C-alpha cells in the first residue's frame, strides 16, 4: 500500500467522517478489512473510498453493500481507462 498509515477504528471513522455503525457494516460485508483484526487497524488509503460510498448511500438512499459495489465498479472503470490510455500511448 502506497503511503498508507494505519488508524484505530475510532480514528478512522473520525477521518472518514462516517458513522461508527456504517463503518462496521462495511467491515461486516468484507468490503473494508482491518489490517490487524485483533487490533482493528484500518488503512488510511481506504478513507477516500469509504467517504465516496457513504456519500452515494446517503444521496441515493442505498444500502452499504450497494454503495460499496458502485465504488468498486467505478475504480475498475478508472483502472481500465488508464490501461487503455497506456495502450494507446504505446501504439503511437
From TrEMBL:
Gene3D superfamilies xref list: 1.10.1660.10
Name recorded for this polypeptide: MerR family transcriptional regulator
Lineage summary: Bacteria, Pseudomonadati, Thermodesulfobacteriota, Desulfovibrionia, Desulfovibrionales
Amino acid at each position: 500500500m502506497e503511503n498508507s498509515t494505519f488508524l484505530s477504528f475510532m480514528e478512522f471513522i473520525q477521518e472518514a467522517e462516517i458513522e461508527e455503525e456504517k463503518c462496521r457494516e462495511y467491515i461486516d460485508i468484507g468490503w473494508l478489512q482491518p489490517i490487524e483484526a485483533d487490533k482493528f487497524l484500518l488503512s488510511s488509503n481506504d478513507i477516500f473510498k469509504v467517504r465516496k460510498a457513504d456519500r452515494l448511500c446517503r444521496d441515493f438512499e442505498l444500502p452499504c453493500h450497494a454503495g460499496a459495489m458502485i465504488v468498486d465498479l467505478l475504480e475498475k472503470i478508472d483502472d481500465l481507462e488508464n490501461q487503455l490510455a497506456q495502450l494507446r500511448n504505446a501504439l503511437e
